[in-house]
């Protein structure tokens, strides 16, 4: 769902509710649906905590932190249900929509460039075996650390298709020098991942650029603490706090999807279209259509 279609309501907040009554009603309906889903979950969790039904060594949930939060500038009041729903909604959206969209972009490139997919599959097999009759076998988290090409594929996907491409763009209104860097007027920061002065053949999907043995740079600093060549998760103090979890999810799902299934373009004259669609996160303008076949054979 595109959030941009509701932007008109922000221009004239009071008048917009009257002029665009249907749109306002739709937005309220979406919010009510969100409340109906999240409030029961939040209250169930907090009731368990109050009744001490949660083990002392259990992981502290995000909701627990929100429940204990106090606002000193407002008399130490606690968050309302509506505020907790908003924060939980942002937390879920930031950790699911961005990851699922990035996963789709990576798989789209693996379908478009089958030689990359085959090379990745061979690396996975070299680490975990070919599966054979072990239908239940999955690529485990600890095995991902021995797959440098997998990590390179994920980084290349993030370079070309950062999830916040339309959310994070900033441009400077005038030429400015910052920490020794000269930033030209109207320079768009989000475009650096496709900058030809930074990356060779920037529009090509070439994972080898992140492998040290191929003239690349294995161990690339995604946090931008050493240098800034791309920033799919932002940079500095406001960098995405869940970037390590996002990378783990992407590596895990890409590895298992390629290990179990061979991905090809859909039958007919279908070609993978990498055109972008502007929403809250970057989505594919035309959804990915594929034909998949199982690699790991079931046991007799």
From TrEMBL:
PANTHER family xref list: CYTOCHROME P450 FAMILY PROTEIN (PTHR24298:SF908), FLAVONOID 3'-MONOOXYGENASE-RELATED (PTHR24298)
Protein name (Swiss-Prot/TrEMBL): Cytochrome P450
Stored Pfam families: p450
Record organism: Heracleum sosnowskyi
Location(s), subcellular: Membrane
A single BP term in Gene Ontology: coumarin biosynthetic process
Alphabetical list of PROSITE patterns matching this protein: CYTOCHROME_P450
Membrane-protein topology: Single-pass membrane protein
Cellular component terms per the entry's GO annotation: membrane
GO molecular function: heme binding; iron ion binding; oxidoreductase activity, acting on paired donors, with incorporation or reduction of molecular oxygen, NAD(P)H as one donor, and incorporation of one atom of oxygen
Family the entry assigns: Belongs to the cytochrome P450 family.
